[in-house]
């Protein structure tokens, strides 16, 4: 292993929720991967803790997030040897001396600055890193979503980070792109010839993307009050899924080949503004209800949420793409908190048969390709087949590809892949600046239309599929949401 392959990963926000819930578990699994280059993790946070005290907190959290069968004492000890702790206030330039001391003499290594902090902090961290002379040729910076809360703030963050890091050094995370089934969608589309001729307006009637969650705020009320479902989920995760479904075949997996194609999709989204935005979107907010038999509070009763909050916890919308491939094929997107089921899936519905040769009693359902990301990872192709027997009777059947069986994955999967990609310098799964800009350009007029209108988010009971208006949105076009498990 060469010195240049080894790495130092500096995690700002090292004792925060993201570090404990996603990054450290993913690093633990990566540490067990023989392909991981030699490297260490320096957690940075404000608390004045010793390394031992920090590791004790890490252990407490990891035990919660890593199944007992994977939590091996011997591995834990070796993993902990890789972790160091640096107590500092990232806003104070003077504090960077401590970090410099830890990095001195290691300039040849890959240096990853992971900003697992509130986005505003990146405004102090990047110039401070630069002024302290810590940004080397081999440095990379990882930015978590949300990048801004509108176009102007996203531009400001991108400008400030761009002032000290080149675009090739900036890794903007959208962990949905690294989910196993999304990767499989890419494999399915471009590793087979079967679907490509059908993957267009002549054969597909509409597309649905659902990311439904059962969780509520879980202590994130403060953040969510400044965000809402459109900014938190649609601007990034759902639009990125839409890009992967709708993009033209890139000519390689090279970062810009993929990102150029995704950008074209974002730019082909028909603008939604004013009355069109109001007609084609539905906002909701959960009230008290029951999830899996347990009573849960309404959004406005959550911690750190204003009792008269107008923040949406649910969005459904209809998007159109102005392109030769997709003209006239609606894409319905929906996401929400406290919904009936945890379910993330993409449903591609094909057109109806042009003419039925079967008896009137045979209802022929349109073929559907259902790509499920969560809770299970699977792809199902729904077809019509004959019921055994003398008569010609048809029934829907499905061809299943269950990734739980064919690919053993575990919860930390997406972050594991992304961290390894950052260490190896692979930008393909990270968003380029122009993608973030294009996504905000499409989202912002919707936010403006909501703000200007009189409407407030429609109430829905926790444990349901959201406000009835969401069913009406898709129902107006003669379709319904796929809600079967
Ligand atoms: C995050 C959002 O980006 O994604 C959260 O901020 C959301 O609100 C989460 O719960 C969902 O991710 P996953 O991987 O659990 O579906």
Q: How would you characterize the overall build of this protein?
A:
The protein is of the alpha/beta class. 35% of the residues lie in helices and 21% in strands. The chain folds into 2 domains: 7-144, Rossmann fold (3-Layer(aba) Sandwich); 177-411 and 432-475, Dihydrodipicolinate Reductase, domain 2, CATH 3.30.360. The chain has helices spanning 17-31, 51-65, 73-81, 96-103, 119-131, 151-162, 180-190, 221-225, 229-246, 255-268, 274-279, 403-406, 413-424, 433-452, 468-475; strands at 7-12, 39-45, 83-87, 110-115, 139-143, 170-172, 204-212, 281-287, 289-291, 294-296, 314-319, 331-336, 343-350, 368-374, 378-386, 394-402, 458-461. The longest helix is centred in the C-terminal third of the chain and has 20 residues, at 433-452. The relative contact order is 0.14. The structure holds 6-O-phosphono-beta-D-glucopyranose. The site of 6-O-phosphono-beta-D-glucopyranose (BG6) has 5 residues, from loops. 6-O-phosphono-beta-D-glucopyranose binds at residues 145, 175, 213, 232, 374.
Key features?
21% strand, 17 strands, globular, Rossmann fold, single chain, 2 domains, alpha/beta, 15 helices, 35% helix, Dihydrodipicolinate Reductase, domain 2, nine-stranded mixed beta sheet, six-stranded parallel beta sheet, 485 residues, binds 6-O-phosphono-beta-D-glucopyranose
List the helices and strands and how they pair.
Layout: E1 7-12, H1 17-31, E2 39-45, H2 51-65, H3 73-81, E3 83-87, H4 96-103, E4 110-115, H5 119-131, E5 139-143, H6 151-162, E6 170-172, H7 180-190, E7 204-212, H8 221-225, H9 229-246, H10 255-268, H11 274-279, E8 281-287, E9 289-291, E10 294-296, E11 314-319, E12 331-336, E13 343-350, E14 368-374, E15 378-386, E16 394-402, H12 403-406, H13 413-424, H14 433-452, E17 458-461, H15 468-475
Parallel strand pairs: 1-2, 1-4, 2-3, 4-5, 5-6, 7-12, 8-17
Antiparallel strand pairs: 7-13, 8-11, 9-10, 11-12, 13-14, 14-15, 15-16
Helix pairs in contact: 1-2, 1-13, 6-14, 9-10, 9-14, 10-14
The chain binds 6-O-phosphono-beta-D-glucopyranose.
């Amino acid at each position: 292993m060469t010195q240049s392959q080894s790495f130092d990963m500096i995690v700002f926000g090292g004792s925060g929720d993201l570090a404990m819930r996603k990054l450290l578990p993913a690093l633990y699994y990566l540490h067990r991967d023989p392909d991981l280059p030699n490297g260490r993790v320096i957690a940075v946070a404000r608390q004045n803790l010793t390394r031992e005290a920090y590791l004790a907190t890490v252990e407490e959290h990891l035990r919660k997030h890593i199944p007992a069968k994977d939590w091996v004492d011997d591995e834990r000890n070796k993993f902990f040897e890789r972790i160091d702790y640096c107590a500092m206030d990232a806003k104070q330039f003077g504090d960077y001396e401590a970090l410099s001391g830890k990095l001195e003499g290691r300039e040849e290594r890959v240096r990853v600055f992971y900003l697992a902090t509130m986005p505003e902090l990146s405004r102090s961290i990047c110039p401070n890193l630069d002024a302290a002379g810590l940004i080397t040729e081999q440095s990379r910076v990882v930015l978590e979503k949300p990048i801004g809360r509108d176009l102007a703030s996203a531009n400001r963050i991108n400008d400030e980070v761009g002032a000290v890091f080149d675009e090739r050094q900036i890794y903007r995370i959208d962990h949905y792109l690294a989910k196993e089934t999304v990767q499989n969608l890419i494999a399915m589309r471009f590793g087979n010839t079967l679907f490509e001729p059908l993957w267009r307006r002549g054969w597909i009637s509409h597309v649905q993307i659902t990311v439904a969650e059962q969780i509520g705020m879980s202590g994130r009320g403060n953040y969510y009050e400044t965000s809402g479902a459109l900014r938190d989920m649609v601007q990034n995760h759902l639009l990125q899924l839409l890009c992967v479904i709708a993009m033209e075949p890139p000519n390689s997996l090279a970062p810009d080949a993929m990102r150029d194609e995704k950008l074209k999709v974002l730019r082909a989204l028909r603008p939604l503004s004013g009355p069109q935005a109001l007609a084609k979107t539905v906002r909701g907010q959960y009230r008290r209800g029951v999830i899996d038999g347990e009573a849960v509070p309404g959004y406005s009763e959550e911690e750190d949420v204003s009792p008269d909050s107008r923040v949406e916890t649910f969005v459904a919308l209809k998007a159109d793409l102005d392109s030769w491939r997709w003209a006239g094929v609606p894409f319905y997107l929906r996401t929400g908190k406290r919904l009936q089921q945890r379910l993330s899936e993409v449903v591609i519905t094909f057109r109806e048969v042009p003419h039925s040769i079967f008896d009137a009693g045979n209802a022929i359902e349109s073929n559907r390709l259902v790509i499920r990301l969560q809770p299970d990872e699977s792809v199902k192709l729904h077809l019509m087949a004959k019921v055994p027997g003398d008569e010609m009777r048809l029934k829907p059947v499905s061809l299943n590809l269950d990734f739980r069986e064919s690919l053993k994955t575990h919860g930390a999967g997406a972050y594991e892949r992304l961290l390894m990609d950052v260490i190896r310098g692979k930008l393909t799964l990270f968003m380029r600046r122009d993608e973030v800009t294009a996504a905000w350009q499409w989202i912002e007029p919707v936010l403006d239309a909501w703000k200007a209108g009189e409407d407030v988010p429609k109430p829905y009971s926790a444990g349901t599929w959201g406000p009835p208006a969401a069913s009406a949105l898709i129902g107006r076009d003669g379709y319904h949401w796929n809600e079967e498990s």
